[in-house]
Amino acid sequence: METYKRIPLAFESGSGAWLTDTMGNRYLDALAGIAVCGLGHAHPDIQKALSEQASKLVHTSNLYEIPLQQQLADELCLLSGLEKAFFCNSGAEANEAAIKICRKFGHEKGNPSPVIVVMNGSFHGRTLATLTATDNSKIKVGFDPLIEGFIHVPYNDISALEQVYKTCPGIVAVMLEPVQGENGVVIPEHGYLKKVSQFCKDQDLLLVLDEVQTGMCRTGKWFACQHEQVLPDVMTLAKSLGNGVPIGACLANEKAAAPMTPGSHASTFGGNPLCASAALAVINYMRRHKMDQRVADLGITMLEQLQHALKDKDGVREVRGLGLMIGIEMDTDCLEIVSKAQKRNLLINVTAGNVIRLLPPLIISDDEANQIIATVTDVVTEFVSG
Fold it and tell me: Which of 133, 5, 90 is nearest to 270 (CA)?
């Protein structure tokens, strides 16, 4: 089905931060499969974990205990401070699980029509529930009727949240991204997330954080909410969790998870031994190499250098970022910059129409980071010069 408008470029191999196409050309990857391949391509630890596990056992189903899944749950709960885990195959599925948790939580409180507050500019997935939660009218066209039970408010505006709570009975949860990735790397002011967290506590609402793109050290912390020492009730993960192996996770505290009883949710492939082995290899490598601190340090350096290089460029509105999640906002649509970078053997993308988004593998070297900065500066300069 023609659901993708693909770039006419195909890759046959990769190593670290580099990809090689079918013609033998090498490209520096500053997109990492849209924040997926945090450890880069063909990482030896992932290779080893997958190969060894595939030679023993790939799948048994969740009808039986899966020791590697339990081990992974323990690791993620330890890292996040949450207490329960449900495994699935993608970020959208993880967010679906979170939405079901919120609704079950509401029904347990005697609310027959629970409402979830979501944010303007959000992206949570393309299933019917996550599409409804997402604030993007273009991708909703043709899929009506969407489901009920969501209300949108402005992002980074605590007063808007407080006001809608007064006027909308039935609210049971607030769901948001700590940094909005698809909306152009939109970073709320420091303190916003803590205010939302306190508001949810005061009103006995569930706080759901979509860390699908921001989680697993991408922003310089294991999870972006840790920049403000916020502990949500529910957190969703995917993307970098498996380094390209499809796995998602919905983590929750005891209060949120309690209504989810046997039969209330399930996944055939979720948390199977193969995927769990890959995710454990990712966590073990990130922990050993203190990936959170490395990303924090390198992210500051890259952001400062890009801001300096682009500060006087006409057409550049803002350069912003957190860790290795960087956005360069232009004052006009700039999709052609993707092809300009590709001609220089650099892979990037443009989101929200006018934001150059950089999501390189977390394992890039200083030299590779400098190459990204230099090439991006060149293509932006070329673009604004006409």
Answer: 90
